[in-house]
Amino acid sequence: MTTPRTVLVTGGNRGIGYAIAEQFVAEGHRVAVTARSGEGPEGTLTVRADVTDTASIDAAYSEVEEKLGAVEVVVANAGITRDTLMMRMSDDDFDAVVDTNLGGTFRVVKRASKGMLKARYGRIVLISSVVGLLGSAGQINYASSKAGLVGMARSITRELGARGITANVVAPGFIQTDMTASLPEDTQAEYKKRIPAGRFAEVSEVARVVTWLAGDDAAYISGAVIPVDGGLGMGH
Fold it and tell me: Are 165 and 220 in contact (CB under 8 A)?
């Protein structure tokens, strides 16, 4: 039985973040989500936050701490894309994605680490992507930001590993979402051909890996990259 914890999931109002928050609630945890708009799943506390703004993150944490207690588990999931080929990518397209996906994660985790160090306990899970290590044409900004999370988790592990804090990366592949469902049939078939499992993942399959990593059974796992991609990225 996993000990109930106070959990914060960034970008928990839709997609993978929503599913992760839902799974933590189902497992009996106290769960807050950050969102710029919209709400997290039933049973969660939704707080407004913009991960590019340190003051807004600080305010969000203060609200969670006041209502649910110190954050023991943080899942950094908030992210954006601005896909285009490198030759057409503006500095702003690059900077905005890196500042949100990599910089935002740094701000969120740095603020969480204060309480974790005090408690000598913490679980940090960074949501990356198969393209962070596989690469993807038209996603230099996104892939760079997601690859950066690996170096971040491993550096956090070296800094904080002796204090009962773990930091790991989950790297999902193609997920069954509204976005993939709206792709033309032949495009979906083309993607599935590249995936040894021959199908896209369900969001719940990613969520359960995250909750396991955050639980008592994974206390000796840190600095790891866990792919949830049906074999797409083997050999990273």
Answer: no
Calpha distance 121→68 (Å, rounded): 16
Q: How far apart are the C-alpha atoms of 182 and 222, rounded to whole Å?
A: 36
Separation of alpha carbons 99 and 125, rounded Å: 18
* CATH classification code of 6-226: 3.40.50.720
Question: For residue 178, is pLDDT > 80?
Answer: no
Indicate if the pLDDT at residue 235 is higher than 80.
Answer: no
Task: Determine whether 220 is an active site residue.
Answer: no
Mean pLDDT within 159-183: 91
Per annotation, catalytic residue among 18, 142, 191, 220: 142
- What three-state secondary structure class fits 166? strand
Q: Which one, of 148, 138, 144, 134, lies nearest residue 229 by Cα?
A: 134
Residue 136 has φ and ψ, to the nearest 5°, of -160, 125
Q: Would you mind telling me the total number of residues written for the chain in this entry?
A: 236
Determine the Cα angle at 18 with ends 17 and 22, to 5°: 115
Helix (H, G, I), strand (E, B) or coil at 167: strand
What pLDDT, on a 0 to 100 scale, did the predictor assign at position 68? 98
Q: Is 142 exposed, middle or buried (0-12, 13-18, 19+ CB in 10 A)?
A: buried
**Angstrom distance (rounded) from CA 161 to CA 224:** 13
List the one residue out of 128, 115, 31, 112 whose CA is nearest residue 77.
128
SS3 76: strand
- Domain coordinates of the chain in residue numbers? 6-226
